[in-house]
Amino acid sequence: MHNRIALFRTERGASRRELGEAVGVNPQTIGFLERGDYNPSLELGLKLSRFFEVPVETLFSFDPFPSVASILANQESRS
Fold first, then answer.
1. SS3 2
2. What is the per-residue pLDDT for 69?
3. Domains assigned to the chain
4. Separation of alpha carbons 56 and 50, rounded Å
């Protein structure tokens, strides 16, 4: 499973500790999630999506997410 937790966490300016406290897990769990070493439970996935105020499918996918650079390049080429 692929995720964008690190991207959203960095954008929000939250540390792993702050995110962990907000969703009720150890900061190490956040690190495991970000590296893809651990898949969250449904409950944790929903808590994370609530914290970031995005749909759960914006954070998690079975397929790799495109890089931010490629998304920006596609937007520029359409302009």
1. strand
2. 86
3. 2-78 (1.10.260.40)
4. 8
